[in-house]
Amino acid sequence: MIQLHDKFFKPFLSEKEIQQAVKGIADRIAADYADETPIFVGVLNGSFMFVSDFLKAYPHPCEVSFVKLSSYQGLTSTGIVETLLDLPENIEGRSVIILEDIIDTGRTLQELVHLFTNTNVKEFKIASLFYKSEIYNGEYTIDYFGLEIPDRFIVGYGLDYKELGRNLKEIYQLNQKHMINLVLFGKPGAGKGTQAEFLKDKYNLKHISTGDVFRYNIKNGTELGTLAKSYIDKGDLVPDEVTIKMLESEVDKNPDADGFIFDGFPRTAAQAEALDNFLESKDMNVNATIALEANDEVLIARLLERGKISGRTDDQDVDKIRNRFDEYNTKTAPLKEYYEEQHKFHSVNGIGSIAEITERLTKVIEQF
C-alpha cells in the first residue's frame, strides 16, 4: 500500500506484466510496418514511460513526436479536453500511430482524431497500453492495446494522481474500501462507549470520542491541543474548525480502518454540516446516525450504580443527571431533524443485555 496525497493505492500490475504488454504492442505494430518508417505520436504527460519502453522494443526505423492534451483533474475527467502541444509538421503522406497510456471514456481520443482530420496522413492508427473497454464509448477503433483493464483509477508508469506517482515502475489501483461511518448518540448511561467497543472490533472501525481526542491533544501539548486550551482557559467554546482539524488528524492516523464511529461530535446542526463537508473532502460520508434510546428512570439507576464505582460526582446526583438529560434533549433535537432529512437517523432500543443491544445495532449497520 502506498499513499499519494490523501489517497491510498494498492498493487495492481507488476513491472513484468507491464513490460510484457509493451513488448506485445511493439511486436504487433512491427509486423504491420516492417516496410515503412511510421511516425509514433506519444500523448503527454502519461505516456512518456510507455513511449520510451515501446521505442526500445520496436526493432525497425521510426520517428517519434508528442502532443499534449489534458482532461483530468484529480480522480475524475473534467470532460473538457485541452490541446497543450500541437502535432508535428512532417506527417503528410505518412503512417501515424498514436501511443496513448490509457483509453477510458474516449474523450481525449476524440480530440486526437479531430487533430488529424485535415492532415492528409497516409494512415492513422491508435495504440494504447491500457484499455477500459467497459466505459469506452466505442466511437473509434482501438487498433492495438496492451492490457484490457476494469474501470479502476490507476497510477504509476507515467500515470498520476495530482501529479504524483508517475515515476512508479508498477501500476497501483485506488484502494476503494466500503467505508462505514457512524455517528453515535445516546444520553449519559445509554451504553455508547460499551457498544462502540463491540462495533469497532466487529467492523474494523475506529472509535473517535471527541472528549478523548481533546484530552489527548491537550495532555500532549499538540499544536491543536494548545490552541483548544487557549479557548478553554478563557471560558470560551472551542471553535468547530479546531475540533474538525482534530478529527481529521485522527482519521488520517488510521488509514487502514474500514470506517469511523464519531462519538460526542457533532453536537449542533452546524457541526453536523461541518462534519459532512470534512468527510466529503475525503470521499466519505456519514452512513448512519444511531441514537441509543432508553427510559430516563432506567438510565438514572444505571448512572447511580456506575457512580458508586467511578466516583464521578455527576453520576451520584439525580438532579445533575436530569440536567444532563435535558441538555442532551435540547442539543439532539435539531441534529435528529438534520439527519432525518438525509434519511440517516436511526433509533435503537438501548434497554436490555449488552448482547441484545449489540444485535439491534448490527441490524441497522448491516443495511450498509
Spatially, the strands of the biggest sheet line up as: 5-4-3-6-7-8
Q: Which shape, going by the Cα principal axes?
A: elongated
First-to-last CA distance: 25 Å
> In what range is the share of β-strand residues?
25-35%
Question: Architecture of the largest domain in CATH?
Answer: 3-Layer(aba) Sandwich
Number of strands: 15
Overall residue-averaged pLDDT value: 87
**How many helices?**
11
CATH topology of the largest domain: Rossmann fold
Helical content stands at 25-40%
In the predicted model, the low-confidence regions spanning at least 5 consecutive residues are: 72-85
Helix-strand topology string = EEHEHEEEHEEEEEHEHHHEHEHHEH
Domain count: 2
Structural class: alpha/beta
In CATH, the homologous superfamily of the largest domain goes by the name: P-loop containing nucleotide triphosphate hydrolases
User: Could you give a short account of the major beta sheet?
Assistant: 6 strands, mixed
Q: What are the key terms here?
A:
15 strands, six-stranded mixed beta sheet, Rossmann fold, 368 residues, five-stranded parallel beta sheet, elongated, 11 helices
Question: Topology, pairings included?
Answer:
Blueprint: E1 2-4, E2 7-13, H1 15-32, E3 39-44, H2 48-57, E4 63-73, E5 76-85, E6 95-103, H3 107-115, E7 123-131, E8 144-148, E9 154-155, E10 171-174, E11 180-186, H4 192-203, E12 206-209, H5 210-219, H6 223-233, H7 240-252, E13 259-263, H8 269-281, E14 288-293, H9 296-310, H10 318-341, E15 345-349, H11 354-365
Parallel strand pairs: 3-4, 3-6, 6-7, 7-8, 11-13, 11-14, 12-13, 14-15
Antiparallel strand pairs: 1-2, 2-10, 4-5, 9-10
